[in-house]
Structures are given as C-alpha cells and as structure tokens.
Amino acid sequence: MGDAPGASPLALVLSGGGARAAYQVGVLAALAERVPALTPPIITGVSAGAINAMYLAARAGPFAAAVSQLADEWRRLTVDRVVRVRPLQLGRAAIGALLTGRRARPARQRGLLDTAPLRRFLTAAIEPRGIDTNLTSGRLRAVALTATAYGTGQTVSFVQAPPTVAMWTRARRVARHARLSIDHVMASAAIPLLFPAVRIGDEFFGDGSVRLTAPLAPAIHLGARAILAIGLRPADPDVAVSPAEYPSAAESLGLVLHSIFLDALDADAERLERLNRVVTALPPGTPVPEDLRPLRLLVLRPSRDLAALASGQLPRLPRLVRLVVQRLGGQRIGAAGFLSYLLFDPAYTTRLMELGYEDVAREWPRVVRFLAAVDRRVPAGG
Fold it and tell me: In this predicted model, what pLDDT tens digit does every residue of 2-17 receive, in sequence order?
C-alpha cells in the first residue's frame, strides 16, 4: 500500500525517544500483520526513530518482513550493545584538569557514554545500499533522517531520494540530498552530553530532536498526502506525584529529554490539524494558498506511560552504566522517565513492543478508517 492506484502517498514518521522507540516496532508489527500490503513510500526518522527508519528503508524484501526482522533485532538489543562507560578516560581528563589548572588532552570519548557498541551493532544489522535497491524497485520514494548541526544550530534533514525530489530551506531547518550511512543514523541519535557528536563532512552533528519544532515537516516536503506518525507520549499520562526531595540530576534530565523527544510531535500535529480545518473550510472556488493542502494524519500513541513501565528497572543496567545513573539520582521513583530512555533491555523493550501491538488492536477501528481513506483497497470495515 503506497503508490498503487487508489492510494495517496503515505509517510511513516518515527520520532525519537531512546529505548522507548521499541514501542514503534510493536505498532508496525500489528499493522503489517493486519495489512500485509502496507508499504509506506516515504519514511522519516529522528534520533532512535532514525534507527528504525534506516533499518526499514534499507531492508530488502516486503515491508512486513522488514518489520519482523527489526523486531528480532530489538529483542537481542541490550545496553552493552548500545553504550559503554570508560571511566579511566573520563577520570584522566577530569583529574588532569584539576591538578594542572589547565585543559587536559581531550579524552577520545566525548560524551558521558561511549556509543561505539551501537555503531558496531548497526553496522552489522543494516546495509545502507539496500536503500538504492528499494528506491529503484519503487518500494521507496524517499527516506529522511534528521540531525542538528552544532556549528549553525540548524536542523538538517538528510534525504536519500531521486535528484528530482526538491530540497527545502526554512527558518533554522534545511534539507540536503545525501547517500545515507550509519554516520547519519549515529548523528541523529547523538543526545548532547550523553552521547558523542558525529562528524559528517566538515560539520559535527547531534540528536535531531533537539531543535526540531516541526517533526512532520520532512514528510510533507517529500510529498506525503497522508502521514502515520508514532509518538511515544501517552494520550493520558499517569498523574505525577510531587517529589518530597529536591529533584535529582536524573529527574531533571528526564524532564529535559521529555521536552526534546515528546513535546514537538504533539504540537506539530495540532498545527497540522488546524491548517486542515482552515483549508477545508474555504468556500468552493477559493484559491488555496500556495504550498497548503489538506493532509490526512493519524498519530498513534501509547495507552500507558512508558516511564512507569521502567520504574524499578535500574538493576537491569550493566554495572558501570548503573553506577553512572545512580550518581545522577536515577534510583529515585521520579527518575523513571530518564531511565526509560536508557533501558535497552529485552525485558523492557519487549514489553513496549507488546504494548504497541496491543494498542493497534485497541485502536483498530480508528486505524482502519485512516488506512481505508488512504488506500481504497483497504476495506473500511477492517
């Protein structure tokens, strides 16, 4: 389902959120099972969503098979295959600065956590040349991964698509044609301070969610007429309890990460829905403003707070990572939000995939109405 007769160009938008992105895989698994012909020709991703997007865009064969294989990869993904702590390097840099009063030689590790294991995992799991194959076969029209340029502060969407696909420039965000690689995935997921920046060409890039105020925009620029977005914030979050103690660093970081990864999609979806109402309310015959067109939008969100599912799971982290998180106050109940981004553990991520699968079943009437409106081959009754 994509560019076939009777279909509108469908875009899949995958937002960021660390280990929480396993939820997206559960949603996609349920959709692929119920609608085997589902094949979004446009895929965009940012941060951990860029990992999922790149895998799906580069995998040969039917989209449903790619989703199944992606789920298998998540089931074997553990924290030590994502990050490692190298305390000696961090310690030497810090002690040297304190004793000498001057800047020590920079440690090779530039972030609090070293992401070399993730690079090895992705290199083994993804063959970027598969994107060319899918573009040539017509299964894929375009794929975009978004990162943030440290030098300019711009949000940059790296797009692999035919040369005829136009790029765009907007306030603080641009698009560039690129042959996507593991570097682009690593850059998109490089959370500032926590993960090291990634060099692409002559620039350093970090997590694409940091200044991405319009996460739906890349899909729209690439020609989508319908967008399926998978968010990671619950529609009805659990009621928070006011902490009795001053917030720990982990609790503060959790709040910052929520604002980076979770807020923008909801705000952008609201803007799009308002524009849809404005465009459709124009009297017949009224010229539609340039570059405006109504778009169908479906945002699927967790039915449960993903942070709550991570509560009490700190002991599942490897010892050195656990020690770092504990030093930040990550053992507190209020730090579960921060923990949920780092908890690459099959016990947690498998539960998130199960929840995504269950949520599609729960929301199926709404989902099938959207899909039937996008592709007339899908019966509105499911």
Answer: 555 445 699 999 999 9
Tokens 């995939």 locate to 353
Kindly report, residue by residue over 317-374, the tens digit of the pLDDT.
Answer: 888 888 888 888 888 888 899 999 999 999 999 999 999 999 999 999 999 999 998 8
- Strand-pair partners of 375: 7
- Name the residue with tokens 């504990």: 326
Question: pTM, whole model, 2 decimals?
Answer: 0.90
Q: Does residue 293 register a pLDDT over 80? A: no
Looking only at the bridges linking them, the beta strands covering 296-300 and 10-14 are: unpaired
Nearest to 225 by CA among 381, 42, 366: 42
Q: What are the φ and ψ backbone dihedral angles of 8, each rounded to 5 degrees?
A: -95, 145
Q: Is pLDDT of 109 > 60?
A: no
What lies within 8 Å, CB to CB, of 370 at 6+ separation is 226, 228, 296, 298
| CB 232, CB 17: distance < 8 Å | yes
- Listed in sequence order, the residues at least 6 apart from 302 whose beta carbon sits closer than 8 Å to its beta carbon are 23, 231, 232, 233, 234, 235, 352, 355, 356, 359
Angle between the 48-58 and 116-125 helix axes, to the nearest 10 degrees? 20
Q: Element (H or E) spanning 56, and its range?
A: helix 48-58
CA 45 to chain centre: 5
Distance (Å, rounded) from C-alpha 213 to C-alpha 46? 12
Instruction: Say if residue 93's pLDDT is above 50.
Output: no
The residues, any chain, with a CB within 8 Å of residue 139's CB and separated by 6 or more, are: 2, 39, 41, 63
Interatomic CA distance for residues 155 and 226, integer angstroms: 23
C-alpha distance from residue 255 to each of 5, 191, 224, 297 (Å): 45, 14, 32, 27
What tokens were used for 381? 């009754």
